[in-house]
Amino acid sequence: FSSYLPISEIVMSQPESTSHVVLPTWVDSSLFKGMLRGIERESLRMQSNGFLSQALHPKTLGSALTHPHITTDYSEALMEFITPPQDSIKKALHYLADIHAVAHRHLENGEKLWPLSMPCMLDDQEENIRLAQYGTSNVGRFKTLYRHGLGVRYGRRMQTISGVHYNLSFPDQVFEALQQHESDEALKSLSLQDYRSHRYFALIRNFIRLTPLVMFLVGASPSVCQCFMTGREHHLLPLLKGTLFLPYATALRMGNFGYQNSAQKQLGIHYNTMSGYLEGLQKAVKTPYAPFSHLGLTDEQGEPIQINDHVLQIENEYYSLVRPKQVPKAGETPSQALENRGVGYVELRAVDVNPYSSIGIDENTAAFLEVLALHCLLQDSPDLLDKEQLQIERNQAEVVNRGRAPNASIIDATGEHPIEAWSRMQVIAMQPLADLLDATYSTDLYSAALALMLKRIDEVDETLSAQVIADTLENGGTWGFGSLMAQQHAMSYEQHPLSPDTLSYFDDLAVQSLQQQQQLEQDSSLSFEQYLADYR
Q1: Three-class SS string for 435-452?
Q2: Which residues of the chain have pLDDT under 70?
Q3: What are the phi and psi torsion angles at 409 (to 5°)?
């Protein structure tokens, strides 16, 4: 199935013409009615003095263990807001805005939500980055122990980084139509579930190939507070007092200082087949890793300090740019859910928090990601082999560290290209899909988003990362810029209208979630030691 010509055949001399990308006649905009998207956004709670909050998760918001929309990620101060799946971008963003407004109402002592991917001020003591607490149930203690293990393995500072995860699914009729038009008999004879997984894995491989584009266009972490680098070797330069940067950086969060795991590099987990991916993940969860064994499993008091000494304590420790997902049923691990019901949606994870949006993401980024995902789904997607993987990692490092440099380049199968030319080529190839989604939703949002991205490509100072540097300079540093935006966002939460129904819905959820946590704590007949031993 080749719905597009290879990108290399798109004629570069006429960027206005998109006629070289021909969609098959059977691809109709009505096919995409029924797409769903959900958003997860992380944000640190910051004290009024700019330092990371030391306070507990506000009890009035409910239990972080059982609340479906408001929880915590690594540290007690790292809030995570989760929307349910929505049938339009507008609804997803509105739901996310509701969650922010509700959470803001319950923050205490003048705390605010920090608006940047890289953290607010951290002091020298790692212990002051407090681990998220989920109560005394076995499942709650297990979650905290997992976080303790992450801190022991990689340091707690790394776990204070925030991101946005964009979850997206296409309706079954899309996969049915694609399968009908396959020429390969083996693919035609797959069950719908297996075919759908096959196509989602193809999307994932293409998304990995195009992550440099995401980092270039929506990366917004070109600088960090100096405190983040305490005790670490680095090649960053001083931007001004208290702030470090690289002159042409786009998304340091996605680079060596962000979510990295050297042990995972050797895993060789690949996305060429579902079985290969699951096998790699299972192996990592079951294989001891010497550097983690040296850390030990317990402290001097005999208290556990990590779940195990394996390459991954649990599957979610695998930090990837994009994940195949299926909603797990009670007692299922993420990979069991995938094995049992196939891929249900993809989680796009290479997205920085947009500091200029009070909810961390705007409709342009959302629409761009949806067009990009559709592009990745419909493009040919050969297996991703080691040689290309290395080339992609080189491209990612180039864009993370110097994506805005005049001589930044991308290497693909057709050779080396200036980043602007390569990016423009990709975005222009997506235009027919933006038109398609505009038709599906009777909007011009998707085309407008691509137009904005083209503007960022043509004028690098229009990128988010360039704006962040300019505004950090203007406001005297990371803290000055971040606190200004935090203040503006707080005002927008206060002005965001919450209907009585919405308020009572979140009030009820808070109560219910605390009751559920209590129930879990009472039901536990097994000691935690036994629970952990059983898991191990």
Answers
A1: HHHHHHHCCCHHHHHHHH
A2: 1-22, 258-263
A3: -140, 160
Query: How large is the C-alpha radius of gyration of the chain?
Result: 23
Res 524: pLDDT: 76
Of residues 305, 255, 281, the one with CA closest to residue 146: 305
pTM recorded for the entire structure: 0.95
Contact 271, 201 (CB under 8 A): yes
Measured CA to CA, the distance from residue 35 to residue 373 in angstroms comes to 12
Q: Both tokens of residue 436?
A: 């398609």
Q: How far apart are CA 168 and CA 133, in angstroms?
A: 30
Biggest CA pair distance of the chain: 71
Give residue 232's pLDDT.
86
Q: What is the dihedral of CA 169, 399, 456, 424, to 10 degrees?
A: -80
Q: Please list, in sequence order, all residues whose beta carbon lies within 8 angstroms of the beta carbon of residue 225, skipping any fewer than 6 positions away.
A: 118, 119, 120, 121, 122, 242, 243, 244, 477, 478, 479
Q: Which of 494, 524, 519, 512 is nearest to 112 (CA)?
A: 494
Q: Residue 24: is it exposed, middle or buried by C-beta count within 10 angstroms (0-12/13-18/19+)?
A: middle
Q: Are 394 and 411 in contact (CB under 8 A)?
A: yes
Give the Cα separation of 248 and 245 in Å (integer): 9
Q: Who's near 224: CB < 8 A, 6+ residues apart? A: 118, 236, 243, 244, 245, 252, 257, 478
Per-residue pLDDT, 257: 73
Can you give the pLDDT at residue 6? 37
**Residues 511, 514, 516, 519: what is their CA dihedral angle, to the nearest 10 degrees?**
-120
pLDDT the model gives residue 19: 38
Answer whether 400's CB lies under 8 Å from 252's CB.
Answer: yes
Which residue bears the tokens 């200004």? 484
pLDDT score recorded for residue 96: 98
Question: Which runs of E-coded beta strand occur in 106-221?
Answer: 112-113, 164-169
Contact 506, 100 (CB under 8 A): no
| Per-residue model confidence (pLDDT) at position 525 | 86
**Contact criterion met (CB below 8 Å) for 330 and 322:** no
pLDDT tens by residue, 398-441? 999 999 999 999 999 999 999 999 999 999 999 999 999 999 99
Distance in angstroms (rounded) separating the CA atoms of residues 246 and 230: 17
H or E element that contains 351: strand 345-351
- Helix (H), strand (E) at residue 179: helix 172-180
Contacts of 53 (CB under 8 A, 6+ apart): 44, 45, 46, 47, 76, 77, 111
